[in-house]
TrEMBL record:
It is found in: Nucleus; Cytoplasm, Cytosol; Membrane. InterPro entries: Se-bd. Catalyzes the oxidation of methanethiol, an organosulfur compound known to be produced in substantial amounts by gut bacteria. Selenium-binding protein which may be involved in the sensing of reactive xenobiotics in the cytoplasm. May be involved in intra-Golgi protein transport. Keywords: Acetylation, Cytoplasm, Membrane, Nucleus, Oxidoreductase, Protein transport, Selenium, Transport. This is Methanethiol oxidase. Belongs to the selenium-binding protein family.
Length: 460
């Protein structure tokens, strides 16, 4: 599967994976021009292919962030690209020529470095640290079992230093993480064992314990795991986690995919941590689908920089939602938009019972292109007015749930946001069609702005 990436304020980088019909091609980093005044608006202006095959580029992170900005020598000029399947980690130079990124000194970290130095594999989330180092969470061990550890990279040489966590402290599963130094805490999430999810989703794997349902609380100073929050069945497969951006805040939100719930986590008066469910998306009773009930499948969440709005995508139901989180314990939906999904009127699925909608949504046609798949990865501009979305989740799951997405390629869209009262509106002038790529349809996943975005920086 050809996977791609997107970047910037006037450009944006997106990780892209080639679709299955052409596995002989490498994944690549795509640079997209998002300047409405440019003659190349909505076009891929550069593609950086990786030097290996079957990497599954997934998420990315910067070498430096706002935590480092008291040091004038630090620049956000390298993009770290972990490969979810191959376990390679690429370092991309986006500073020399932002419109034409290149591999940094042809530098990439081979899987053997993670295996032998850390006993870890399947790297996922990358965050820069205030120390200048880079930390990457992992999902597995070299045998494909679940293992939630953390790899430290040198911020200058990009060599593997070793594990961040203390020996024996790794979590049973891993995925995403976010740290908050003022509260001496980091919290990580769980997806599942790589060997279970590699060939698609099997509900039986949930019952046999191959997927997670816990949050892990870490002491930021000692690197020890000090608490585990079991979210129960309602919190199965907790994926993206976000603290509020305010560095003094001791709370945030996590999206749980399987039961389509949002949990708020918070520091208690006793100074330990707890979690409570604050949003529940009802499943829909259906026929013509794999199961009698279809969850929304919350796959990505983010919080606006002013900590006022929470956004998330329901990849199966096909909608993006915007919630006012001014009252942290009682989020209020203020925006919703449908962009594809599995319950469309002209599709094979018939909705028998729906607690939210009176009718099934209509297909989304944008610039003559039918949107395949559902809204997945989100990225919000710093001013909160432009929400970008791509439609690929993970190639094995894309193939299982949205085979037409694999055949026709994913898209990148822009949602215009009402930052006053709330509201989401599709920008009908914006479409990046990764189905029309020179080497065939591609699956675009995560997006990054070189100038900064709402999921990059963590303030000290």
């Amino acid at each position: 599967h050809y996977k791609g990436a997107v970047t910037s304020a006037l450009e944006t980088h997106c990780q892209t994976v080639l679709t299955e019909h052409d596995l002989a091609k490498p994944d690549y980093l795509a640079t997209v021009d998002i300047n409405p005044q440019s003659p190349n608006f909505c076009k891929v202006i550069h593609r950086l292919p990786m030097p290996n095959l079957k990497d599954e580029l997934h998420h990315s992170g910067w070498n430096a962030c706002s935590s480092c900005y008291d040091d004038p020598s630090k620049r956000r000029n390298r993009l770290i690209l972990p490969s979810l399947i191959s376990s390679r980690i690429y370092v991309v130079d986006v500073g020399t020529d932002p419109r034409a990124p290149r591999l940094h000194k042809v530098h990439f970290i081979e899987p053997i470095d993670l295996f032998w130095k850390c006993g870890l594999a399947n790297p996922h989330t990358s965050h820069c640290l205030g120390s200048g180092q880079i930390m990457i969470s992992t999902m597995g061990d070299p045998s494909g079992n679940g293992k939630g550890g953390f790899v430290l990279l040198d911020g200058k040489t990009f060599e593997v230093i070793g594990n961040w966590e203390k020996p024996g402290e790794a979590a049973p599963f891993g995925y995403d993480f976010w740290y908050q130094p003022r509260h001496n805490v980091m919290i990580s999430t769980e997806w599942g064992a790589p060997k279970a999810l590699g060939n698609g989703f099997n509900p039986a794997d949930v019952k046999t314990g191959h997927y997670g349902q816990r949050l892990h609380v870490w002491d930021w100073t000692t690197h020890k795991r000090i608490q585990t929050l079991d979210l129960g069945e309602e919190g199965a497969i907790p994926l993206e986690i976000r603290f509020l951006h305010n560095p003094a805040a001791a709370e945030g939100f996590v999206g749980c995919a399987l039961q389509s719930t949002i949990f708020r986590f918070y520091k208690t008066p006793k100074r330990d941590w707890a979690a409570e469910k604050v949003i529940q998306i009802p499943s829909k009773k259906v026929e013509g689908w794999a199961l009698p009930e279809m969850p929304g499948l919350i796959t990505d969440i983010l919080i606006s920089l002013d900590d006022r709005f929470l956004y998330f995508s329901n990849w199966l139901h096909g909608d993006i939602r915007q919630y006012d989180i001014t009252d942290r314990r009682n989020p209020r939906m203020v925006g919703q938009i449908f962009l594809g999904g599995s319950i469309l009127k002209d599709g094979p699925v018939k909705v028998l019972e729906d607690k939210e909608l009176n009718s099934q949504p209509t297909p989304r046609i944008l610039k003559g292109k039918r949107v395949q798949g559902g809204p997945q990865m989100l990225q919000l501009s710093l001013d909160g007015r432009r929400l970008y979305v791509t439609t690929s989740l993970y190639s094995a799951w894309d193939k299982q749930f949205y085979p037409d997405l694999v055949k026709e390629g994913s898209v990148m869209m822009q949602i215009d946001v009402d930052t006053d009262k709330g509201g989401l509106k599709l920008n009908k002038n914006f479409l990046v069609d990764f189905g029309a790529e020179p080497d065939g349809p591609a699956l675009a996943h995560e997006l990054r702005y070189p100038g900064g975005d709402c999921t990059s920086d963590i303030w000290l």
